Amino acid sequence: MKQLLKESIFQTARWSGLTPALRRIFAGRAAILMFHEVQPDRRSELMTGTSVEHFEYALSWLRQEGWEIVSLEACLERLVTDPQQRRYAVLTFDDGYRDNVSTALPILERYNAPFTVYVPTGAPTRTLHSWWLGLREMFRSRDAVTVDAMGIRFRCPEFDDKMLALSKVTEWIHEDYGRAALLAPMFSRAGLSLSALNEAYFLDERELQVLARHPLASIGGHTASHPALADLDAVSARAEMADNRNYLENLLQRSVQHLAYPYGNARACGPREARLAEEVGFSTAVTTRHEQVSDSKPNPFVLPRIGVGGQFDTRAAFEARMNGVQSAVRVLLGRT
Questions:
Q1: Which of 59, 129, 229, 237 has its CA 20 to 30 A from that of 262?
Q2: What is the torsional sign of CA 334, 290, 54, 38?
Q3: Which range among 32-41, 108-117, 178-187, 291-300 shows the weakest confidence by mean pLDDT?
Q4: 14 and 143 assigned to the same domain
C-alpha cells in the first residue's frame, strides 16, 4: 500500500508542476547512481535488475535534463571548482556482471558515459558465496521452496508468488547478514552450484582485464568475499579490503582507487570501515545510503548512492529520486 502511495505522489509531482520547487529544496548537486544487472529479459530474472529500456531511458533523461555524466573523480573535483553549479551524475555497477559488458556497455558507449564497476574477488575467481543468485535460481526454477533456516515452505507456482517469496527471504537475510550462510545446505540438497552461477553471471578474469582497458571504464574494489564488513573484527575487515585491492591491481596492472562497501547500509558499514578504507589506500568509498550529494566537499569515504532497478522501479520513480521528490516523500512518510 505504501508503495502505491509513493508512486501516486511521484506521478502527481511529475505532472503537476511541483517538481522545480521540490528540486530546489531537496535535490543535491550530484547523484551517484547504483546499478547491478542490466537484464535483456528482466522477467526471467524475477525483476531483480534493471531493464535495458529503463537503463537507456535513465541515461537519455539525464542528458535531456542537463545532468553531466562524469567519472567519480571528475564529479568530486567539479563540485569544488565549478562556479556554475552544474549537476553531475556518476554511473556505478556493483559485482561485475557479464551483462554490464554485453548489454550495458554498448549503451554507455553511445552516450559516451564514464562508469565504474565494483568487483569482489570471489566473482571472477568463482568462489563468491553469491546467495542472491542461488535464491533467485531456486525460486524461478521451482514451484515450491523450503527454506529450513526460516522454517517456511513457500508455494510459488505463479510469477508473482515467486517474486514475493524471493523478496521475503532476501529481506530476512538483510535483517542479519550472517543468515546468508544458513542457505548453503538448501543449495547443496537442491544440487545448485554457486560456482556455476558465478560462471554464468559474472565476468571472468580475462573479460575483466579487457573491460579495464576500455576508455570509459574504471574498476573498483568490492572486498574479497562480499561480507557485511561491520560484522567482522577490524583485522578481518581491513584484510577484506586490502586483499581485494591487491588482487585487482595485480590482475589489471593498474591502480584501484575506488571501493563500494558490500550491502552499504548503516548495518554493514560505518565510521570504522571508512577509516579502514582510507588506510588501505582507496581514494573514495560508496555506500547505499539513499541520498544525493549536496556538499561541495563531501566525505569521500561515505558517499551516498541512488539505486536504479528492482521490481518497483518506474520512470516516474526514477525522476522523483533525481529531482528530490522522493526525498520529500520520505520526509512526509517518516523516511521509509
A1: 59
A2: negative
A3: 291-300
A4: no
134-138, 161-165, 317-321, range with the lowest pLDDT: 317-321
Round to whole Å and give the CA distance between 277 and 301.
7
Q: Report pLDDT digits (tens) over 69-106.
A: 999 999 999 999 987 789 999 999 999 999 999 999 99
- Of 128, 145, 127, which Cα lies nearest the Cα of 136? 145
Identify whether residues 212 and 169 lie together within a single domain.
no
One DSSP character per residue, 271-293 reads: HHHHHHHHHHT-SEEE------B
Biggest alpha carbon–alpha carbon distance for the chain = 60
The domain in which residue 173 lies consists of 131-195
> Per the confidence metrics, is the pTM higher than 0.85?
yes
112 and 229, same domain (yes or no): yes
- What lies within 8 Å, CB to CB, of 88 at 6+ separation is 29, 30, 31, 67, 68, 69, 70, 74, 75, 78, 79
Rounded-to-integer distance, Cα 291 and Cα 63, Å: 20
Do both 234 and 262 map to the same domain?
A: yes
Beta pairing partners, 306: 33
**H/E stretch holding 235:** helix 234-252
pLDDT band at residue 291 under the 50/70/90 scheme: very high
304-314 average pLDDT score: 92
Verify that 161 and 300 share a domain, yes or no.
no
pLDDT grade, residue 296 (50/70/90)?
A: confident
Domain count, the chain: 2
Q: Are residues 59 and 168 in the same domain?
A: no
Q: What is the CATH number of the domain that holds 268?
A: 3.20.20.370
In angstroms, the first-to-last Cα distance of the chain is 13
Same domain, 23 and 155: no
